[in-house]
Design goal:
Elements lengths: L3 H14 L11 E6 L2 E2 L6 E2 L4 E6 L7 E9 L3 E9 L6 E11 L6 E11 L7 E5 L6 E5 L2 E6 L3 E3 L6 E12 L6 E11 L4 E11 L7 H20 L1
Antiparallel strand pairs: 1-2, 1-7, 3-4, 4-5, 5-6, 6-15, 7-14, 8-13, 8-15, 9-12, 9-14, 10-11, 10-14
């Protein structure tokens, strides 16, 4: 996938909106592998602010049946995927989305993720487990994993979509640079004959810092002292 033109547009947009901030020279990338083999994806498009990638399998031969990804250096990444394993054996699926961020430093990474699984195999059960990482969905900041969701599931029920991991949100405190890269990776093992669908997003922002109780007491004591001194004048 060619991203050189995307990189140039992103860099120009970042300079125009924040002249003192230098954008990362690396543009957004989306990579999907199935059992280590790369899935050919369409080029990323850029509308002047947001970048986006849309994919739908029209051949009926790819395990990746649908994919929608969008993002911004603002920064956020949204994703939706649909995967179907039409073989009899399990497959390892991995999707990695990397995007530059600007406007930092940021102090919080927030991850939202939810997924469903449909058992279409003859055994009446399916088990989803993370692949090569502790969670099915994991966010990283400047190549360091910071937060994750979903340790997988086992379902035994009729062949209808069931919740594997309910839509949930978690956050982690971080200390980012002014510019850099953040990554969303979804990776799991999917048994033969089953389907998996997931959606979510990852964002960087700055959480409000609430003063500790001891600090509030010190501030209160200082104010009382000031008021007392004024009254004695």
């Amino acid at each position: 996938m060619k991203t050189a033109s995307i990189c140039s547009v992103l860099a120009l947009a970042c300079v125009m909106n924040a002249a003192v901030v230098v954008a990362s020279p690396i543009g957004p990338t989306v990579e999907v592998t199935v059992d280590g083999r790369h899935v050919e994806l369409p080029a990323i498009t850029f509308d002047g602010k947001l970048w986006r990638l849309d994919y739908a399998d029209t051949t009926g031969t790819s395990p990746l049946t649908g994919l929608q990804v969008s993002g911004d250096t603002d920064p956020f990444i949204d994703y939706w995927i649909s995967v179907q394993n039409v073989t009899s054996g399990a497959l390892n699926f991995s999707m990695s989305i990397t995007s530059p961020y600007v406007g930092g430093p940021y102090n919080r990474v927030t991850l939202r993720h939810g997924d469903t699984v449909t058992d279409l195999g003859p055994d009446g059960a399916t088990t989803i487990v993370p692949f090569s990482q502790p969670f099915v969905a994991q966010a990283s900041l400047d190549n360091v994993a910071v937060v994750g969701l979903s340790s997988g599931c086992t379902v035994t029920a009729p062949p209808t979509p069931q919740t594997c991991f309910p839509d949930d949100e978690t956050a982690a405190s971080v200390s980012s640079l002014a510019t850099g890269l953040f990554t969303m990776r979804v990776a799991f093992n999917l048994p033969g004959g089953d389907t998996f669908e997931a959606s979510g997003n990852v964002t960087l922002d700055n959480a409000r810092v609430v003063p500790e109780a001891s600090s509030m007491l010190l501030i209160g004591a200082a104010l009382v002292g000031v008021l007392g001194a004024r009254r004695r004048r």
